[in-house]
Amino acid sequence: MDLLQEFYLISLDVFCEVGYAKDDNELTAWLSLLATNTYEDAELLCQKYPWMEGIFAEISEYVHNPEETI
User: Fold this and answer.
1) Is the pTM of the predicted complex or chain greater than 0.90?
2) H-helix or E-strand containing 12?
3) Considering only Cβ atoms within 10 Å of each terminal Cβ, which end of the chain, N or C, has fewer?
4) Number of structural domains in the chain
5) What are phi and psi of 68, to 5 degrees?
6) Domain region containing 16
């Protein structure tokens, strides 16, 4: 079966340990979002990338209303 897409596997723990997480671009922002573990990390991301506030607001709604995710 031929697929037209390309897939990349990225180890998020290695991403956080290596200096890539210090770059300021959209890809780094998305990978940092996926690697976020604490509320403090989320706050820092929102300060660095203000466009992520809406994403975190939506995620927090799912945390408070998990039945909506199903």
Assistant:
1) no
2) helix 12-17
3) N
4) 1
5) -75, -20
6) 12-69
